[in-house]
Amino acid sequence: MSDLAQIARNLQTLYLTEVLERVVNEAEPLILEMLRKQHTVQGLSGTGRDIGTYKSDRYARMKNRQNPTVGRGRVDLELSGRYHERLNARQQRLGVMEIESGVDYEKYLTKRYGAKINRLTRENINEIIEKNIRPKFFKAVQNRIFR
After folding, report:
1. 44: Cβ contacts below 8 Å, ≥ 6 apart
2. Domain locations in the chain?
């Protein structure tokens, strides 16, 4: 009976939103890496569409030599590496993260390619939830209940 009483006490002090917030915060490096790949491998913005194309064919050829993965002429937001190196995320509220780079030219990228360049696609969000957040959340809840 004391085991059930302890489980009941643990359930009373279990705040699922706090557990979820912690698990999401712990997933920040994975989220940022997924965004880097979404840009540099897939060439996609948060809408699921191409980030954009280059106006100059000459520049497009140079960028294709630098990163042929995304395809010729498709924007990958990678030149010096500073933009992706400085990406950081912060949780605004439960389930909503704001991702920014903090480089001085970020506002120009956002103006040119849209406000959703620093958002993950629905498919990438679902992958992180299924492979990382959901299993860690359930494990954390289980550990809190049966400690």
Report:
1. 38, 50, 51, 121
2. 27-132
Residues 135, 30: contact at Cβ < 8 Å?
no
Task: Give the phi and the psi of residue 99 in degrees, each rounded to 5.
Answer: -115, 130
Q: 99 near 80, Cβ under 8 Å?
A: no
- Give the DSSP letter string of 35-74: HHHIIIII-B-TTSSB--B-S-HHHHHHHHHH-GGG-TTB
> pTM to 2 decimals?
0.85
Query: Residues 32, 87: contact at Cβ < 8 Å?
Result: yes
d(CA 70, CA 41): 5
Read off the pLDDT of residues 19-58 as tens digits, 9 standing for 90 and up.
888 999 999 999 999 999 999 999 999 999 999 999 899 9
**Calpha distance 116→44 (Å, rounded):** 10
